[in-house]
Amino acid sequence: MPDTGIDTGTSSGPARAPARKPAHNGNLSLALDFGPLLVFFLAYKFWGMIVGTGAFMAAIAVAVVVSKVKLAACHRCCGCRRC
């Protein structure tokens, strides 16, 4: 087909920007994922099921807060001053 200069939509599309690397550390993500589980197993081994479960719930709460503070992307809609 001759080149008429008219875009027929058969091109490969717009060029995409290269994918950005995640802004967080892989080791931190690993610690946040498996840290509460490790806390549970250690507390269960030394103090039993009830203490282990309580320690696990506390560790999950800490992991959620650390995750929000360290790993969350700041969005302009939240009103914080980090943007």
In brief:
This protein is mostly helical.
Q: What would you note in describing this structure?
A:
The termini are far apart. The protein is built from two helices and no strands. Helix 1 runs antiparallel to helix 2. It has a domain of 34 residues. The model has no long low-confidence stretch (mean pLDDT 79). With 83 residues, it is mainly α.
Lay out the secondary structure.
Blueprint: H1 26-47, H2 49-71
Q: How many beta-strand runs?
A: 0
Mean pLDDT over the residues? 79
Q: Write down the Rg.
A: 24 Å
**Proportion in β-strands:** under 5%
- Helix-strand sequence: HH
SS field, number of helical segments? 2
Main β sheet profile? none
Shape descriptor reads elongated
- Structural class, from secondary structure content? mainly alpha
Keywords:
elongated; 2 helices; 0% strand; 83 residues; single chain; 54% helix; mainly alpha
